[in-house]
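@channel sequence for tomorrow's demo:
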Amino acid sequence: MIYLDYQATTPIAPEVVAAMRPWIEEKFANPHSPSTWGREAAAAIEVARSCIEAAIGLADGRFAFTSGATEAINWALKGTFENSQRRKLVTVATEHAAVLDTAEWLEEERGAEVIRLGVGPDGLIDLKAAQIAIDGDTAMVAAMLVNNEIGVIQPIPELAALAHERGALMLCDAVQGFGRMAMPEGPDLVAVSGHKVHGPKGIGGLWMKNGAEPAPLLHGGGQELGLRSGTLSPSLCVGFGEAANLAAERQNADSTHVEKLFEIATSSFGQGWIINGNTNHRYHGNLNIRRDGLDGARLISDLRNLAFSLGSACASGSGRPSHVLRALGLTDREARSSIRLGFGRYTGEEELASACRRIDDAARGQLGFLG
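structure tokens (generated this afternoon):
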């Protein structure tokens, strides 16, 4: 199996497995217990928190652990509207379902006004349109740093500046960018996830600028900073902390490797392939491409020993064309002719080149012009 689905999840780092093991086996105490073992677990969680805060690299804030980025985004959006008298949310049509579905809930259940900014054929927003949409009734602007389906990088600092000019908060879904690039200045709230940076699944969190903390989403013991209730898992927190620390240490090396992989991938495909999204303002570990007339789902079925995808893992099986690709102006047919390759730290150059050639050959065979 050649794994090319890094946007869905990343292989867990061996160092992370080693760091987690003691907290799964012998160090199983509840970190909220006053016992010696409990205090030891709590201390390990605080070390992990510090590693993640350092990797995020933003000042004047604190990080709270959650079950993942979906919870963090729900908390940021619902909690901010709970605290605010303003009723408007400005977001982007190509956001992750965690943002778009929560926005729809805010519309239907809380009477919020939601503006979904469109994007151009390159997947980027128009900042002039954003400036018009963000007004004095805007509570929050929510935008993804790196799009999970097409890899484009939105102008987060500029969006944050527009939000702050109007007294609004800025939420950045940084899941696909955290650990892979420097975090841009400006956001008041940042959602991240452990399993997208070679850490464990089931753990993520929300970085909150001081004074921008959302109202609690979960109620109970208030174990996490008095803002989130529930018993934390020391093993998951430690694993995420180790993954964040590794990502920070290896960021330059990982980036250099990804650039080389992107060059190999783009040069391995034959004529007829088109890159979806901006080719300059993008994370190069994400290659979303299409070929006219191709059946992407059939291609995946034909190449079972290669792991790649049609788009977001969260939307797989829905039968609907990608909302991100539709937002670029692609037809349903063009969207269904698109595939997404994701690669990174543990992808070998030769295996990537081989996989791309096999995908290209299978696509040519499907379309009837091999040879």
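heads up for whoever presents: The chain has two domains: 2-8+251-367, 15-246.
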